[in-house]
Amino acid sequence: MSGNADNDMNRVTDREVMVRRRALLGGALALASGVVLGSAPTAHAGVNAAFRWCQRCQGMWRAGAGDNGHCPVEHWCDHSHYTEGSGVYWFVDQWGDFNHDPVTTGSLEMKWCRTCKAAYFDTPGPTLCPNNARGHTPSSETYHVESPRDANPKYPHQAGWRVCQNCFVYFFIGNGLSRTHCATGRWHVPLTVNLREVERLPRHGNPPR
């Protein structure tokens, strides 16, 4: 990004979006304070390794769920997310993975959209989906996502993932904000708390068997 004009173009002015952002900030501040948002009621291994990075929009999405979703990047032939160039990303769901982790780390905060397939922060307010005016259609399961503070050192993680304050999707910032694409029609805007971007670390590579 360069210049005030670009920044002005990407600034959020919609009142409803700002209300959603305040709701999301409240959740992020709770996470920063160490509040646990959920617990595993039974000893059931709930690992999902079907998440991938989309080279078009730079977002995280759930592959293998019927179709390739709806990427916010327009293309002459389709609107699908891509798997090309992506590694394997995996998360533990609300049931926990006690076969490998006696204590599941991270906060219970992520779902994937059954309409566009994007992985997103489970905010209490409306979300923004490129294929549904009413917002994301939540998956039945919810996943733990780790921060640099609570990441389990047993497993490889990938840095550079953020939450967009507008669409709430998890996206990769490592290739530059100008490469990202949000359902707003602009690039993603990273969520910040106390002027620091909220970073999330997905588990990267094949999960344990």
Features:
single chain; globular; disordered N terminus; 4-stranded antiparallel beta sheet; 2 helices; 3-stranded antiparallel beta sheet; alpha+beta; 209 residues
Which residue ranges are poorly predicted, with pLDDT under 50 across at least 5 consecutive positions?
Answer: 1-44
- The H/E string reads HHEEEEEEEEEEEE
The averaged pLDDT comes out at 80
- What about the largest sheet? 4 strands, antiparallel
How far is the N terminus from the C terminus?
A: 42 Å
What is the overall shape? Answer: globular
Descriptive notes:
The protein is an alpha+beta fold and 209 residues long. 12% of the residues lie in helices and 19% in strands. It has helices at 3-9, 15-32, and strands at 47-53, 60-62, 89-92, 107-112, 119-121, 143-145, 161-163, 170-172, 192-193, 196-197, 199-200, 203-204. It contains 2 helices and 12 strands; from the N terminus they run ααββββββββββββ. It is globular. Residues 1-44 have low confidence and may be disordered. A 4-stranded antiparallel beta sheet has the order 2-1-3-12, with no helix packed on it. The longest helix is centred in the first third of the chain and has 18 residues, at 15-32.
